[in-house]
Amino acid sequence: MHSFRFGGGLMVNIFVVGLGGQGTIMFSKILSTALLEAGCNLITKETTGSTHRDAPVTSEIRVGPNVRSPGIMDGEADVVVGLEPMECLRFARKYSPSATVFVNTHPVYPPFTISRRPYPEVGEILGVLKELTGRVVALDATKLAEDVGGGSAANMVMLGVLVGSGILDLDLGRVEEVISRLAPRGAEKLNVDAFRAGLREAEKIFR
Fold first, then answer.
1. Which of 70, 107, 137, 172 is most buried, judged by most C-beta within 10 A?
2. What burial class does residue 172 get, using C-beta atoms within 10 Å of its C-beta: 0-12 exposed, 13-18 middle, 19+ buried?
């Protein structure tokens, strides 16, 4: 797995996707703040399909000294974080063939009134992603978040796995401090604990 050490003209495209209510924007805000405070130049773009819960939400973070456009073109995402497996697959056109894809395997099933199609098996989704990208890192982040106090913090588990993987050149303490500062009031400890759970999972995956 390639590690991105920022500097020297390197451009890195990070694509984050989930559903409303999963904390996609909070994930992006914390990650982009940590990158900025580490001295990186970046531009972000956020897209919400609807104001309703369970609607698609994406965030694009482009990091590099000469970055000028916020949008990631099809086939250009180097790092992908999918907070929901089907939504992660839905945007696969964005991913580079060499991309590393981090995906939460816990599905969010759409209401029958929205989709009459059966939800695919998660194993099938992961199989397609593995055929299309360089590496897929799959874990049940929702379960890990529940174990530390709340499934709503699965986004921070995913952040912990991403940062703990070493794929981005980020200081763990810096990221944890940003989480404590930007997390919703009263949920700081939960979010930090979830981030640490992700770090522990990364140790198991990447050791």
1. 137
2. middle
- Condensed to tens digits (0 to 9), the pLDDT of residues 147-175 reads 999 999 999 999 999 999 999 989 999 99
Q: What is the 3-state secondary structure (H, E, C) of the chain?
A: CCCECCCCCCCEEEEEEEECCCCHHHHHHHHHHHHHHCCCCEEEEEEECCCCCCCEEEEEEEECCCCCCCCCCCCCEEEEEECCHHHHHHCHHHEEEEEEEEEECCCCCCCCCCCCCCCCCHHHHHHHHHHHCCEEEEECHHHHHHHCCCHHHHHHHHHHHHHHHCCECCCHHHHHHHHHHHCCCCCHHHHHHHHHHHHHHHHHHHC
User: With a threshold of 0.90, does the pTM exceed it?
Assistant: yes
**Beta pairing, strands 12-19 & 135-139:** unpaired
Tokens describing residue 118 = 């059966």
Which distant-in-sequence residues (6+ apart) come within 8 Å of 205 by Cβ?
137, 139, 161, 165
